[in-house]
Amino acid sequence: MAERLADRALRVRTTGIREWHRGVVHYNRYEATPYIALDKLFETYSLDKTDELVDFGCGRGRVIFYIHNRFGIPVTGIEANDKTYEEALRNKNAYLHRAKHIKAPIRILYGPAENYEIKPTENRFYFFNPFSIKIFRKVINNILDSVKEHPRSVDLLIYYPTAIYKQFLRKDTLFEIINKVKTPGMKDKKEKFLIYRLRQQDLPYEAE
Ligand SMILES: C[S@@+](CC[C@H](N)C(=O)[O-])C[C@H]1O[C@@H](n2cnc3c(N)ncnc32)[C@H](O)[C@@H]1O
């Protein structure tokens, strides 16, 4: 009920689940981040006017609309499921009716997140258990390539972090956990955010 009310305030429809058809093994189902988790996250974590966020596997777009509405920053969502993507576009139209005054752009793209070319201005990256570790690795390596070319600090906001995502980031990257935010009232220990940061000064520079 609370989820539907929060949706209504944004003029969107993002509740429910959509499974992939059998045979799709690397892509996970649609389910939105609970609003209560987003509210809790942003009690302690903030986004700046200069930040730009990408949600890899944006589903029906809850996170990008919430963040656009709350922080007024440019947001991009990428979604590989055609039906879910269409729903996200419908939500964008409905949302923009009420949020015309917020000038920051909202982009929703159809396609695999692993093929997305990261823009040099993008610095905040959101994941809610969208895909297998194989794809996650590829996306993180795309982020790291972009950072190598255009040095900047970047944060990963990871909801429902799996052991395998955590292990990869700990062992194979220089990302460090800077905060953990639990979702109130949830029994499952994974119902939390881990925020990882890669600071520009920590980037390894190659000798000329
Ligand atoms: C758990 S949902 C998260 C939705 C949204 N980020 C949120 O937190 O409300 C994961 C989404 O990722 C999408 N997805 C799975 N694999 C993908 C891929 N390789 N590229 C883009 N989207 C993908 C799924 O279709 C699904 O909508």
Explain how this protein is built.
With 208 residues, this protein is of the alpha/beta class. The chain has a single domain (2-15, 32-202), classed as Rossmann fold, CATH 3.40.50.150. It contains six helices and nine strands, in the order αββαβαβαββαβαββ. The strands form two sheets. Strands 5-4-3-6-7-9-8 form a seven-stranded mixed beta sheet. Strand 4 (75-79), helix 4 and strand 5 (106-110) form a beta-alpha-beta unit. The N and C termini lie far apart (58 Å). 36% of the residues are buried. The protein binds S-adenosylmethionine. Residues 27-28, 30-33, 55, 57-59, 62-63, 78-81, 84, 112-114, 128-131, 135 line the site of S-adenosylmethionine.
Mean pLDDT: 95
* CATH superfamily descriptor: Vaccinia Virus protein VP39
pLDDT < 50 stretches: none
Distance between the termini: 58 Å
| Domains (count) | 1
Q: Major sheet, described briefly? A: 7 strands, mixed
Q: How much helix is in the residues?
A: 25-40%
Q: Quickly give the structural class.
A: alpha/beta
Give the DSSP E fraction (strand runs of 2 or more residues).
15-25%
Which CATH class? Answer: Alpha Beta
From the structure provided, what is the oligomeric state, counting identical versus distinct chains? Answer: single chain
